[in-house]
């Protein structure tokens, strides 16, 4: 389990690194958009390349940062029912989701996306718009982004299994100012409290 947790921490560091620098893609897109507007208004000149590089950068930031978004638990979640369940049930739902839904979808996208990237790279496909850009650089973001997302899904899966085994902190409730040891102690305390509550409920029912 310790080897898997080490792998999980390495993936977390990788996606944290990628996420911190993805913001510069948004910044670059903003600068290009502003420069394009100034040139168009001042010199009455523009190019489709300016427009296409903006959505290239947006696609890169959106796809490549997907793993970082999962790490930060910022994806949209519909938890009207989930929030009413016990912590262990919530963790099990996440485990099923990561193992049976996220991972197969990522593998399918990679299975279909990598050959498409290779085809576009070998053909040198260029945008059909006048002054447009070559296509393969933006296609690179697809397999790269889904690889990082799949790795982060595995990292989250490992953390949840470790939590259920009492070998890791609560993956959904850790405070940023807690150390690993403090978070683990808190997770064990919550688990014990839930067990005591279940035991008390069972005794009352008898």
TrEMBL record:
Main location per the UniProt record: membrane
GO cellular component terms, semicolon-separated: plasma membrane
Annotated localization: Cell inner membrane
Single GO molecular function: transmembrane transporter activity
One Pfam family from the record: DctQ
Keyword Methyltransferase included in the entry's annotation: no
Keywords: Cell inner membrane, Cell membrane, Membrane, Transmembrane, Transmembrane helix, Transport
Regions crossing the membrane: 21-39, 54-71, 91-113, 133-151
Membrane topology: Multi-pass membrane protein
Domain Tripartite ATP-independent periplasmic transporters DctQ component as annotated: residue spans: 30-161
Function, as annotated: Part of the tripartite ATP-independent periplasmic (TRAP) transport system.
Subunit and partners: The complex comprises the extracytoplasmic solute receptor protein and the two transmembrane proteins.
PANTHER family registered for this protein in UniProt: 2,3-DIKETO-L-GULONATE TRAP TRANSPORTER SMALL PERMEASE PROTEIN YIAM, SLL1102 PROTEIN
Family recorded in the similarity comment: Belongs to the TRAP transporter small permease family.
Protein name: TRAP transporter small permease protein
Organism: Pulveribacter suum
